[in-house]
Amino acid sequence: MRRFKLAGGNGEMFWLEGDEFRHLTTVLRLGAGARIVGFDGDRSYVGIIAGIEDGRAWCRVESTLAATGEPAAAVYLALGLLKGDKMELALQKGVELGMAGFIPLAAARSVARPDERRQETRRARREKIAAAAVKQCGRIRAPEIFPTSEWKDLPDLLPRDTRYFLAWEEEKKRSFRAELAGVDWARPLAILIGPEGGFTRAEAMAATVELKATPVSLGARILRAETAALAALTMALGAAGDLG
Ligand code: SAM
Question: Which of 111, 180, 196, 222 to mutate to test the pocket of ligand 1 (most atoms within 8 A of CB)?
């Protein structure tokens, strides 16, 4: 069944409007009697289209779906700015993997530089990518998408009890897998991944002091940043019992 972000509802009826209405009526050409899933930030419903008028599609709720596709664990990804569409790839896959928030990081070695003028359009595009991934994968809530920030901003952006891990390819003792075994999943967790050129030693050392970030290895091979981001998210959500 096709899934749509609902615009409003009262438990017995819900309705679609805007882009979701256009997708339903002009792209998919669904009409009265069709069965769809409507979701909001809290739950999802199976509904039957009862009427279409004035840019709204009204659906009668047939049942409320228990599973929401939302992970219990809150895992944030802070990713050094990457060139091209690699940020958007990591964002889309991060939504599917269940991340709670996405923070583009302006790191010292980021080749891509934050562009103030394009910040808003870029953020709107990222929100659109996230919304489409939420629909596709069965989540009901999009991860929070933050503006491009510095790692020093993270304590102001993320919950106070967030536990930080910094993926550091020079770390030879602590493995992320072993560290995850001891994580208290009641606390949010944030993973910092460097840009193509990696974190500088100074950045890594400062993050371990100021964020109390634990430097961790993701294994013996050097992963591309976008690969490292998705591997780390998979490891974390897997360890939290949310994946697999
Ligand atoms: N210094 C790397 C090199 O020599 O190619 C460049 C950085 S790597 C492409 C991008 C980021 O992925 C790193 O900053 C780190 O956060 C993460 N990363 C990649 N492989 C890793 C590993 N084996 N252990 C921990 N982090 C890794």
Answer: 222
